[in-house]
Structure formats: structure tokens, C-alpha cells
Amino acid sequence: MFPPVNWSVADLSTMCHGSPYFFNANPRPTWIPSSFGFAHVERLQQTSRILWAYGELDPWATLGLKAAVSNQTALIRIPGGSHCADMEGPNEHDTVAMRTARQQESEVVGKWLAQVVEERPK
Hints:
The chain is an alpha+beta fold. The chain has four helices and two strands.
């Protein structure tokens, strides 16, 4: 769906600002990190049971988190994957990477649910 491309903020800026198709827009490379808290990882380190899963072709893959921020969070990057593909049901077109990511997601969420059950007052 998305052809491979060497990506950089400078190339994106040139493309967006110099093209009438992009309304002479100026990319804001710090918007994603600052808007979603990635610029303040120390705040995210205080959270628990957050699973980030995204494909390496997603627009935020370049500027987003590169690894889980604590042992209570998880990050799954899907090689060749794109936005929300891991949220669809499995199908015959899934890549090995997608099947692996779904399995990892299931294991992480299953572990957290087991922890919640264990932590409940008896």
C-alpha cells in the first residue's frame, strides 16, 4: 500500500511547502511528541498498563516512542505495518510481522488482566 521511501523532516517540508496539493503547509515535527506526551517521557514513566502498537509506516513512527517507557508499559512496532491494521481481524493477507504483533499484543494484555485479577481483594 505504501511504497518504501527515505523520509526526513527536511524532505517533507520541501514537499509540503512547495506543492499546491499540501496548501503550502509547514510540518511541525515537535507537535506529535509534545501533544502526546512523548516529549516528557518522565511523565509517561509514572503510568502503567499502556500498550502502544503501531506500524513502521505510520506517520508517528518516526517521531513517536521507540521503546516502552517503563516495565509497566509495552511498545510493539510492526515492520511494514500501517495505521490500525493490527486492530482488524486476522486475515490471509497478514504478514508474519502482523501475526507476531497480534500475538504479542494478546500476551501483554492477557498478562495485565491476570495481574488485575491477582491484585483484586479476595
